[in-house]
Design a protein that fits this description.
The structure holds 2 protein chains of 2 kinds. By secondary structure, chain A is mainly β. Chain A contains no helices and 11 strands. Chain B is an all-beta fold. Chain B contains no helices and 9 strands. Chain B is globular, with a radius of gyration of 13 Å. Classes of the chains: A mainly beta, B mainly beta. At the A-B interface, β4, β5, β9 and β10 of A face β4 of B.
């Protein structure tokens, strides 16, 4: 099946710094990617929808200036957590929709962010 | 809010069939039922999806009631590696974002 990768898989950063997380579709093109956040023992919560070549659409309550999303190519979307705080520590997961298909979304393996 | 309700947890003996129910009483005619699972600290994994006919693949079977208000995911011979949280999701089949409910935590016991 289609493969989505995320990099890094784990990252620890200090408060106030910025962290970039990459989401790549390895063997298909994805015009749409989604970014989710998951706190321990909780379900995934959608943060934003990323469309190639256009601005991301953020869910209510998600600060667009804090969580910068760039979808510059059909195989790469990035999420940058700016001025990170300990409460941003979470598991961040992306998913990608195959261009021209609407049957399945493929999820990345997730990135665990810890802010100290 | 998620449009589905699932039991929070279930146990299943290894080698037995695991039957995971899902209620989606407000499903509309053009919404599909999707099942994903999430093994601890990994991204969700696609299992199966269907509209109104029963579906089967190498991983599982999906049984959808005639009125489409509920469905059951069947893992025919559960293994320890099937221990995960299973999510039942309904959405129109054109790339909507998924709304995840709390899912069912399946524990396969030796």
């Amino acid at each position: 099946g289609a493969v989505v990768s995320q990099h890094p898989s784990r990252v620890i950063c200090k408060s106030g710094t910025s962290v970039k997380i990459e989401c790549r579709s390895l063997d298909f093109q994805a015009t749409t990617m989604f970014w989710y956040r998951q706190f321990p023992k909780k379900s995934l919560m959608l943060m934003a929808t990323s469309n190639e070549g256009s601005k991301a659409t953020y869910e209510q309550g998600v600060e667009k200036d804090k969580f910068l999303i760039n979808h510059a190519s059909l195989t790469l979307s990035t999420l940058t957590v700016t001025s990170a705080h300990p409460e941003d520590s979470s598991f961040y997961i992306c998913s990608a929709l195959i261009s021209g298909s609407s049957d399945e979304q493929y999820f990345g393996p997730g990135t665990r962010l810890t802010v100290t | 809010d998620a449009k589905t309700t699932q039991p929070p947890s279930m146990d299943c003996a290894e080698g037995r069939a695991a039957n995971l129910p899902c209620n989606h009483s407000t499903i509309s005619g053009n919404e599909y039922v999707y099942w994903y699972r999430q093994i601890h600290s990994q991204g969700p994994q696609y299992i199966i999806h269907g509209l109104k006919n029963n579906e089967t693949n190498e991983m599982a079977s999906l049984i959808i009631t005639e009125d489409r208000k509920s469905s059951t995911l069947i893992l025919p011979h559960a293994t320890l590696r099937d221990t995960a949280v299973y999510y039942c999701i309904v959405l129109i089949n054109y790339g909507q974002n998924f709304v995840f409910g709390p899912g069912t935590r399946l524990s396969v016991l030796p």
